[in-house]
Amino acid sequence: xxxxxxxxxxxxxxxxxxxxxxxxxxxxxxxxxxxxxxxxxxxxxxxxxxxxxxxxxxxxxxxxxxxxxxxxxxxxxxxxxxxxxxxxxxxxxxxxxxxxxxxxxxxxxxxxxxxxxxxxxxxxxxxxxxxxxxxxxxxxxxxxxxxxxxxxxxxxxxxxxxxxxxxxxxxxxxxxxxxxxxxxxxxxxxxxxxxxxxxxxxxxxxxxxxxxxxxxxxxxxxxxxxxxxxxxxxxxxxxxxxxxxxxxxxxxxxxxxxxxx
Amino acid sequence: xxxxxxxxxxxxxxxxxxxxxxxxxxxxxxxxxxxxxxxxxxxxxxxxxxxxxxxxxxxxxxxxxxxxxxxxxxxxxxxxxxxxxxxxxxxxxxxxxxxxxxxxxxxxxxxxxxxxxxxxxxxxxxxxxxxxxxxxxxxxxxxxxxxxxxxxxxxxxxxxxxxxxxxxxxxxxxxxxxxxxxxxxxxxxxxxxxxxxxxxxxxxxxxxxxxxxxxxxxxxxxxxxxxxxxxxxxxxxxxxxxxxxxxxxxxxxxxxxxxxx
Lengths: 261, 261
Description:
The structure is a homodimer of 261-residue chains.
Chain A: E1 2-3, H1 10-20, H2 22-28, E2 30-34, H3 36-46, E3 51-55, H4 62-73, E4 77-81, H5 83-89, E5 98-103, E6 117-120, H6 126-138, E7 143-146, H7 156-162, E8 170-172, H8 177-181, E9 187-191, E10 197-198, E11 208-212, H9 221-226, E12 229-232, H10 244-260
Parallel strand pairs in A: 1-4, 3-4, 6-7, 6-11, 7-8, 9-11, 9-12, 10-12
Antiparallel strand pairs in A: 2-5, 3-5
Helix pairs in contact in A: 1-2, 3-4, 6-7, 6-10
């Protein structure tokens, strides 16, 4: 374990940069995972981080000490920071004092849609994107494609909301969704409040690419018109629509129900 | 329409107090609705506000002007603020410059559970509580009971996430959930990752009181043991759990599916 005591240390400067700038994270292809849960999930699913960063006082926490030991056993770099330096980097209030520096996983875009997938068209809110990733992972969906207008998946807020789902699904960002839908071999199903077919009546026992859209405007018209089917979640109340992450969960688990039926 | 130009005006002081303090909102039994959507929903569902507050520049916005006119037609008080004063009160960045001051609706606690209801035990995150209210309203559920540890429903974040659902469901806060469950005449169903019965296999064609719990710990053990049934949402992936708002949406719309089947 190394200790950094100077704010001029290059690694410290990199951490500070990544912690505060979404652009820096995108450009470097690196991000920070904050806290025990995400770090543990990374170790379980993806192995060693580039760096395990701990505050000096966090070393007394048995959970943190356990993760540090796992990192050292895998010959990962572990760096301790005095609490004042650590706190100046952490974006989490009352955090546990542990973060991983990782390389953002990047996969080559598949040639076509062949397995259960989610396509996010301009979904703005990081909490919604994170919740959708989490629900998708729980429903066994393994591919998520995001348009350039969708919230950056490797931001701290999305990571926190997804609770480790990032590490079990393949995430593709800045994707031209129309080019992906056009040659699709599987059903592409978009949700729309104006559709007449209920999601319960669609046959979901085959692979499906689900399309969800902007919180206010929904799925863009050009993508809607390219979809194989449009479905609606029927409402019994006076409220006009569902939150997009709630809508996605209903669709994914209706598919799980049909698969298990 | 009146205009306030002094920060010492009593109404202005009240607005500032309500805008910045959750405790003040609880104590006064009043809250602020920010923006066109919530204000419109209030007018549609509940009628005139105590006060309609607009920034002077917002009066040029046709949507805002339309709402001001509806308020005046209903003899509600409309107060204009110079932009500088308005912005010092608004908690929303780049807001439209419109808010309603309202009396927080309060209903007497029903003697027992008789219709579809949601019970929230220590749900912490305002976004989750808002999303659950919104899904409940869309699924036709009309009663929501919150334990004292659950996020305050009339806070700006919960209001924003629920998109007007507050005005079509009855919300009861600081409720002793155990006292409500014990004499229940209807099925009380709690979700738990350890349950063996799938939500799809529960008979949901009768009224149900759904119980959802804390984001980390789930439903408290004493409430779990009092529930008529415990159900699980089956997972096909490697992720341990769903976000509580996603979980609620799946349950509510499985009930809608069964009712419509």
